[in-house]
Prior knowledge:
Domain Cytochrome c oxidase assembly factor 3 mitochondrial coiled-coil: 34-78
Radius of gyration: 35 Å
Number of helices: 1
Keywords: Membrane, Mitochondrion, Mitochondrion inner membrane, Transmembrane, Transmembrane helix
Subunit structure: Component of 250-400 kDa complexes called cytochrome oxidase assembly intermediates or COA complexes.
InterPro entries: Coa3, Coa3_CC
Distance between the termini: 112 Å
Shape: rod-shaped
Strand content: under 5%
Membrane topology: Single-pass membrane protein
Amino acid sequence: MEGKTQDASSTAPKHLTPAQKQLLKRQQELEYWKRHSKQIRSRNLITGLTIGAFVVGLFSYTILSVRQERIMDEIDDEAKIFVMKGPRTGANS
Length: 93
């Protein structure tokens, strides 16, 4: 067993101090993040772009709805004016 090199996590002696256990755990976490950082970064990018697209779409929809509402208000105002003036017939024009 002296000639073999083994991973620190696979040969954890039972008589470690709490500080050594914490150091070993931190080293394992660091290795995990090193191995998975590219995958996590790509997931974060996809999530960010999805949320951004949703926000832009919602904003665009809201602006479009408000514009249409203003146009409908203008059409309604024109219709009210037309109704108040009355119909144009040959007798009253």
